[in-house]
Design goal:
The chain is of the alpha/beta class. It contains 14 helices and eleven strands. The protein has a single domain, classed as TIM Barrel, CATH 3.20.20.
């Protein structure tokens, strides 16, 4: 397996009682809560943590995009990827991912990703998402056009990377007389593309298509939902006439490692509970605005993911339902081995900083995961000849 340290960069200095007067950490939480002096220190701390993952031997580090929220201070993940590009010595950087439908000029993403790919000399992963419902409230983008804008923007970006320019592009939402971006990507024909997902049928069919075969990443879900969605993806690959390889599937989840299971639960509990019960919390209408998905996808996502979050989620219940990997290195490695053999994924994107987890515990978590978990499960999901070649 390959391992990518995934960071959300939460504004963890927020008043912990803000939910008493505000619906969520998204959209309507006044930005007067944000102290730029504290925020600046957090940015530098979080970049240090991502750089530490490189020195510890992680295959890559991941940033992502969210707007108008304390949940993640990354409205422009390309800026952070650019900051990392001159500091990472071996690790890949992944922007997992950019929300295509809320962007009015997708060519800027094609250009900026190509720049990062050049700076990293090919150690770059492009992640494309439609963006969760909150992003549509923040950008005032019509969610009814989300799917068609995503696919049109995707087609434009991929063509901009792979077709010689200049050429014309006239779609329903985007119109260009000249598509001729400089620079071109370092990787040929283009950077690898990952598609993080909440499990919608539209995303499964799109990512699995034999013209794309994109890496499908399940995020923030109970293990029963992860199992169901990965099976759906493998089944869709078979419908398209091929077997899904391990490297085409991945799982992103928070994880915490300590000396024993008891110590891990004690150290992690207040911080993982802050993530799921404060930072993630938002009304259903924020998450799934009308027109964003088909009725079948709405139902699948609500039952597989959001229904679990209707009640307070304590650390024990999060561990029990598989939304949080927590324990000693032996415990977590055994769980990963069990899940990998059952589901067949080849990529893990552990979130090793979450909620209010402080710097010293984040660094401890990173080191223990790198030194005591990865070696135990690295061999899973690849054949031994491939592993030896690396």
């Amino acid at each position: 397996m390959k391992f990518y340290f995934f960071h959300l960069m939460p504004y963890q200095d927020i008043d912990p009682d803000y939910l008493k007067t505000n619906k969520s950490s998204w959209i309507n939480l006044p930005n007067s809560y944000y102290d730029p002096k504290k925020g600046a220190k957090l940015y530098h701390r979080y970049l240090d943590e991502l750089e530490l993952a490189d020195t510890l031997g992680f295959d890559g580090v991941c940033v992502n995009e969210h707007h108008q929220t304390a949940y993640g201070m990354m409205p422009s993940p390309n800026v952070l990827a650019g900051a990392l590009s001159r500091r990472l010595k071996k690790a890949t950087v992944g922007v997992i991912g950019r929300a295509l439908p809320i962007v009015d000029n997708p060519l800027t993403i094609a250009e900026e990703f190509a720049m990062i790919d050049n700076l990293m000399e090919g150690r770059f992963i492009a992640g494309f998402v439609r963006g969760i419902g909150c992003e549509y409230h923040a950008s005032m983008t019509n969610p009814g056009f989300s799917l068609e804008r995503f696919r049109e923007a995707h087609d434009l970006i991929v063509r901009a990377w792979t077709d010689p320019g200049p050429f014309e592009f006239y779609g329903k939402h985007y119109h260009y007389q000249y598509v001729n971006p400089w620079p071109r990507p370092y990787q040929s024909p283009r950077p690898p593309i990952w598609i993080p997902s909440q499990g919608s049928t539209e995303t499964v069919e799109f990512a699995a298509h034999p013209d794309r075969r994109y890496t499908y990443i399940i995020t923030f879900s109970p293990v029963a939902s992860v199992r169901k969605n990965m099976k759906a993806y493998r089944d869709q690959c078979q419908v398209y006439g091929y077997e899904c390889p391990a490297e085409q599937m991945g799982w992103a989840m928070p994880a915490y490692i300590a000396e024993t299971d008891a110590i891990a639960r004690k150290e992690a509990a207040p911080h993982i509970e802050s993530l799921f019960n404060k930072f993630i919390s938002s009304p259903s209408q924020y998450k799934l605005p009308p027109g964003y998905s088909s009725l079948a996808s709405y139902k699948a996502v609500m039952e597989g993911k959001y229904k679990v979050r209707e009640n307070y989620l304590d650390c024990d219940s999060l561990i029990e339902n598989g939304m949080f990997l927590c324990g000693s290195a032996e415990t977590v490695a055994a769980k990963l081995e069990e899940y990998q053999k059952e589901m067949g994924f080849g990529n893990i994107a552990p979130m090793l900083q979450f909620g209010t987890l402080p710097k010293e515990l984040t660094e401890k978590n990173l080191r223990l995961f790198a030194e005591e978990v990865i070696p135990k499960v690295r061999h899973l999901g690849v054949d031994m000849e491939t592993l030896a070649a690396e």
